[in-house]
Amino acid sequence: GSSCEKCDFETDLCKALHDLNLQPGWIRRNGLSGTRPPYSDHSGNDSAYFLSLSSEMRSSSATLRTNVFLPTDKEHICQITFHYWISQTGGTLMVGLQKHSEDTITYIWQDLGELQNQWKANTITINSTEKYEV
Length: 134
What we know:
The chain is an all-beta fold. The protein has no helices and seven strands. β4 and β5 form a beta hairpin. The protein is globular and about 45 Å long.
């Protein structure tokens, strides 16, 4: 609907995500500035920005957290569509949900990286009766 926000990292980190300084390991770059793939974004634009794990992070994990989303209701389920790339060195991309009454993160989706070195898209749907972060 009209409440959709597009997040493309062109000018900054998108309103949906917390400040990058809190999350070591992520860099904002484009295809032109990389010494390794991807050399363009999902639409083939080599000057468009995306988030990438820095090369020092090969063996560990890094997290991106959204800001707080409000509870969903019957008319407003939350759908988040994202484009992602898993390189030849492999890795797992997971999406977790943390409700504000819970200390733990519940993982609701993952890609183990069987299809590597290509852009893929995924949409997750979230129903939550309380505030949450993704």
